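Re: that chain you flagged

S.,

Sorry for the slow reply, it's been a week of failed gels. I finally had a moment to sit down with the sequence you sent. For the record, here it is as I used it:
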Amino acid sequence: MQPRIGKARGLLEAIVAQERGDAEIDPRHGTRWWIGEEAVPLAVVLLHGLTNSPPQYDRLAPLLHARGHAVIVPRMPYHGYRDRMTDAIAKMRAGDLEAAALQAVVVAALCAQRIVVAGISVGATLAGWLAARTRIDTGIAVAPFCGLRELPAGANDALGAVLRLGPNAFGWWDPRSKEAQPPPHGYPRFATRALGESLRISTEIAAVPGGSAEHGRRVILVVNAHEPVVNNAHATRRFRALRARGVAFERVDLDGLPDVHDIIEPAIPQARTDLVYPRLVELIESV
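Prediction finished late last night. Pasting the structure tokens below so you have them in one place:
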């Protein structure tokens, strides 16, 4: 085993040991990775969405690894708990997610020459945040949570501030399904404070303090033409702003999909991962 790979495995094993030492975290929903014995040309970091967890990628990650890539799927803080009705998600802050995403990129850099970070929803927003600050090759943002579809840009930023400063409340992702809402490895409720913190990341995508010259090569915004939740136009403006940082921008519109926000979750049959995964693989492997 190459020393760099050994170091990467050591870091990942330490993360998992810490997760297993926390009785609240379900070991089935923790950080996972697919890494060989030697460094490879490409490492892929997959970032799950708000209230979801790493099993969201249990079909896509092995597919990518079978194609010769190293794959890392970190568990975001306050996610993956045994209790799906946990109140802990309200403690989450933007900095918690950003730190976890950065840590995954550090590990990925030990495994490959190039790094692609792909994410869904707030994980997608983090992919853009990383592209503005680190030397990843590509950030792929699938349906990033930069704002709600029904609100204009400025109103979404104001909403985020209100949610962060106001008292926390919980809501059902689907008031009809309530606790039965899939996937089983995610939470059926969201915390308004966590939504506000997620929107904070959107405002920080291209706002890099200190004038750092480091940035990724490109970012790809992937949107569902029938997106029911997030504001595609606002996300486009946010991600296009990365051009000012020197990051190439591309938008890919996926047609033929239903009005489902989480288009990559295999536990949601209507997500049509049979259509989405091949396109994502193509984008991840594109040069």
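What I noticed first: The chain has a mean pLDDT of 96.

Talk soon,
D.
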